[in-house]
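User: Some background: our group keeps a shared notebook of sequences we're curious about, and every so often someone picks one and asks for a predicted structure to add to the entry. Today it's my turn. The entry only has the sequence so far, pasted here. Could you supply the structure so I can complete it?
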Amino acid sequence: MSHPTRVHAMNLLLERTASPRQVAGAIDEPLNNVTYHLNQLRKLGCIELVRTERAHGGRVVEHFYRATQRVYFDEEAWEALDEKQRLGVIGVILRIMSQDIAAAMASGTFFAGDGANVSRVPMVVDAEGWEEIAAVIQRATAELFEVEARVAERGAAAADIHAKVEMLQFRSPPPASAG
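Assistant: Of course. Here's the predicted structure to add to the notebook entry:
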């Protein structure tokens, strides 16, 4: 999962079923590159073949996949990545987040209904406080997964709100001095 193309493809396949051609178009990557990475994801059990369709006058069989797992790096998985891999994953996730926000703003759904939240909380903390923040984010993520599981138990027919929860925790440089 350490390759940015795989992260991007998995995020797309979590939201919809798609063919390698559709994934390549959506994430702006060459088809042969996407096909290679989708094959790797399939071998790893991260995606599954949902259906095939004849395309191009029946000369080509197009394969359609969906994700069977979510893209989530726990602390152990994150520590297994080297710095270059981490930067690649972060870059893709930030790009996806930016696209999510832009699409919601453009469609008018960003603040539709009740409960939308945008928070920015600049803080100065010590090492212990940093760890506490990380724990809050980890607990919140686990609780979000639990909410999704409860929704699934209630039945997919009732699930009609498409939601995205995007959280960040990062160290920032100190503010520029005012003098």
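Suggested note for the entry: The mean pLDDT is 89. The longest helix spans residues 127-154.
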